Amino acid sequence: MTYSSELSKLIEEFKEIDDKMERLEMVFDLADEVNLLPPQEWSDTTRVVGCQSEAHVRVDVVNACVNLESGADSKLVQGLMGILTLAIHGTEVAEALKLTPDFATEMGVLNTLSPSRSNGFRNMFDKVMREIEQIQGD
Amino acid sequence: MTYSSELSKLIEEFKEIDDKMERLEMVFDLADEVNLLPPQEWSDTTRVVGCQSEAHVRVDVVNACVNLESGADSKLVQGLMGILTLAIHGTEVAEALKLTPDFATEMGVLNTLSPSRSNGFRNMFDKVMREIEQIQGD
Amino acid sequence: MREEFPILQRKINGYPLVYLDNAATTQKPASVINAMNDYYANSNANVHRAVHTLAGEATEGYESCRTALKERFNTDKAIITSGTTEAINLVAHAWGRANLSDGDAIILTEMEHHSDIVPWQMLAQEKNIELRYVPVMEDLTLDMELFESAIEGAKLVCVVHISNVLGVCNPIEQIVSIANKHGAKVLLDAAQSAPHQDIDFKSIGVDFMAFSAHKMCGPTGIGALLVTDDAFEEMQPFMGGGDMIETVSIHGSTYQTNEQKFEAGTPRIAEAIGWTEALNWLSSIDIVAEHKRILESARWLANKLRAMGMNVYGRHDDHDAAVVSFLHPTMNSEDLAHLLDARGFAVRTGHHCAQPLLDRLQITGTLRVSLYFYNTHEEVESFVEYFSEILERFA
Amino acid sequence: MREEFPILQRKINGYPLVYLDNAATTQKPASVINAMNDYYANSNANVHRAVHTLAGEATEGYESCRTALKERFNTDKAIITSGTTEAINLVAHAWGRANLSDGDAIILTEMEHHSDIVPWQMLAQEKNIELRYVPVMEDLTLDMELFESAIEGAKLVCVVHISNVLGVCNPIEQIVSIANKHGAKVLLDAAQSAPHQDIDFKSIGVDFMAFSAHKMCGPTGIGALLVTDDAFEEMQPFMGGGDMIETVSIHGSTYQTNEQKFEAGTPRIAEAIGWTEALNWLSSIDIVAEHKRILESARWLANKLRAMGMNVYGRHDDHDAAVVSFLHPTMNSEDLAHLLDARGFAVRTGHHCAQPLLDRLQITGTLRVSLYFYNTHEEVESFVEYFSEILERFA
Ligand SMILES: Cc1ncc(COP(=O)(O)O)c(C=O)c1O
Ligand SMILES: Cc1ncc(COP(=O)(O)O)c(C=O)c1O
Whole-structure pTM over 0.90, yes or no? Predict the structure, then answer.
């Protein structure tokens, strides 16, 4: 599939890094890319289940475009959220729904993480996509 | 410890045989050495427990000497009984009680057999010795 | 194939090992041994909920076993246990204790292994449940007429797929269809069939299926229970501890909702990795053709033994296992087994954990030759040759 | 010593493995790996009641584990299980269900591992038994005053010897003496102590003691329950199946009278052989001196971490384990563990299967460094060095 130029650039950047530490650092840095959903707004409906740590997302559609707010107590998890933000926040719903979690595999970001963390990413991705579909369906 | 000349001869004979098959054959042949306790006289009191197969012994003291009758549905087990018969049948009680099961280890007869069979031999030996002691104690 | 199994190089009392005790346990190919070795030498760690690389590798290794089981047997739920016995006890405790009560009936057969009898006897005693045993007939098959009349009011049927004594394969499709008609669940003891057949759990239609790795080229200490989603939902936790919980507080606990709910404590990690390789190995051979080949050898052996005056207990139909149980008319089986061992032949004697079946046959044990895929017809021929020699010399 | 452990040659992300997750599971020396290898390549067979050479060797190998356990821990009865968790569940089912009833009380502590909580919660629910939890105090020790007042009317005390989170070693002698006075039995969860101390079962005076092989250089899938003769006599069979019976008929069964009564099914043969070697390995080192050495390293580490502003949960008394649990005041533990893994450091994070303890400490998890005898002080120093680097870069 084809990605937005921003996402493509990110994928390339990731691929170039060999050192795990540096890749983690990059994910950490991406934590700043989220539209922060502050802890006081975390609730059972925003919670991503199956994550080791607290991870919360809120999805909306504004002007036919995806609006994603998110936050986590782990900076790494929030970094993953940042990546997802770059991938779909502000894009048209139809476009966003084309995305599969493969992009994260392609980036090599998932095998930087422990299996439970990559499952967490998968759960977050699924929750976000499900909610976009739902809103669109309403 | 010192063994009767008959037992010593047997131990030497056994030691000389390398082939397991031949050793088993020798044990088979020794099955004829028992004073047969015929199956119709087998009972719970004569049974050696912990043996895989039916194995029965009856011990008595006649003129201060051990009288051992035995029989089994396995010829190998009865062969072991034959060896014990050669070792203690007709010997004085005091002499018989000196015997330890080591002689069978020394003969190499036990490691010819499976562990459960050699446990069976051990149980038989213990039962016979216990009963001799008991009769003597009475 | 034989060169893949290191133990087949072994000499016993100076003679090449001829391993004919496969219904008790099978030998392991080098790939299985090496996989476990490799795990311990390179990836050993505790699984689940951990971040470091080794823990990730161990978790993937452990879970790969579940994936392999699901693929090979076509099932949605595969609970990893320590073997067939624990798998059946798991059904008795997790499903039986929660779903059966006073006055209910369970159907067993006289052909069951002790592992599929004793757990039910215990449950029957505790809960006042009736056990009904389907008799074995003269022709060594189950009395299906009596089964049909016994099913009335039964909640569970526990049946062995292939008898470990007779090799007889039971008509599971027929049993399932009768049981279904009466709303009874079916537990299949597949300890002897999973190693010899391709079984499709969903299409065979049973609710529970139990088997062991060690009888299918895998390691000791591991087995599985396959369960339908419906039956899974009816199961209550069995053993409590780490890994099977979601949350624990001093006021109570909540449990996992997937198979881990029944896998308390540190799991059998190395064993799961070894079993995965064994399943791979089985997938790499043509098991239908191989089964046909060894069954032919078993038939040949059975006929030879009959001709030598032995009583053979088995029929060797196309789906039966390559198992030949027999008795010499007078000679003690263990004596024979000792003599066979003297020349490297490994066979089993005794009650094979199936005393009710032997009671029915009015014997106390058999001498059993059981073949697996690495056995050759030459081995079986040499068995017959040497066995005749023994009879000439000792009978 | 390190060269005996093949995995310690491993590189993680290009850096040498520094394995600091020993409370979760320990690594295996080559002798253990080789013994299992050798079993599968040369002696694999099913155990008990068999005649052939391989079966004899397998039986001896399996039983040698029991002998080694009896010698090392000075006990008359050693039941082989799949691990600590199954051992505790065995007590709950085999002893608890038979000897406890409506209104009885069991004492647990807030320091217990889930494996020593959940089985009792299940039993409590089934039989209407009261569970009393001994609180953990500010100084991370058990509130012995509350224990003394809670013991009244209790039939069983379940206590962890060494906490897997805190490393704190509990005063078992005192607990046993109070329990004895009130006629309560004691179950010791020795999962973390058996690997680190020489324990004399008879003189420590508990009735049951549970532990796992994998935490003491042995394989996965095996553990043990030690039992006094008295308690053994009070135990009813737990799982039913092969090997644990004496006779089976359709009218009922009789059971073995020794440990096999509780070892249903084909046992963990290769695992037992591996564990025997692990016990030999432990006997070959000076475990008192080694423990002292790694405890010193743990103390040093705890102090360094405190100086770096971490909250450390532990006191590191002489009999405590070389375990250092801590939290960064703001940084997420799993993030830290990921960063540590990037340079080969394997540590554990999470609730360590001890949620009630964490509830008491008002935290949800810790980052845990746990040492074993093959760890060096240099490894601990390099941990501190790299950890400071992480903090500088990311905190
Ligand atoms: C204190 C304690 N008890 C029980 C267990 C459970 O041991 P296993 O998972 O080997 O059954 C562990 C290990 O995780 C432990 O540390
Ligand atoms: C038919 C059958 N059921 C159950 C079992 C028990 O298997 P395991 O001992 O591996 O638990 C066996 C093997 O002995 C068997 O042959």
Answer: yes
